[in-house]
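Recap from last week: sequence in, structure out.
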Amino acid sequence: MGNFFTSSQIFNGEGLDKQQFIDKFCKAMADSGYVVCDSDEGEKSYILRFDANSKWVAIASEEYAQNSDAAKSDTGRIAKMLGTYCMNTEAVSYTHLRAHETPEHLVCRLLLEKKKKKPHTHLHPLNQH
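Predicted structure tokens:
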């Protein structure tokens, strides 16, 4: 019937470079009782993805895959620990939207087509003498 996807971003307002942000993230997690360990031993696993200028850091976790509420609350908790804020957006597949389309809950659809190219007519100015 379609998938939901939550995108979670943490704002890097201090302008830390990637390594500085990772170090701050790990320290905040250590202060919460977590330590860096091998993936086989891990209770939680995070992936951090930095945008081009490292202003926003996307955060993902296996825990988020099936539970968008977990993503929202966990990202908010982490952002608070880092002294910044976060943004969570939830996207839904087109199939899911169409499955729930009713006259009462109409999903706006734009049907677009490419304009056909018209042959160009070149106009030449008249020679004025």
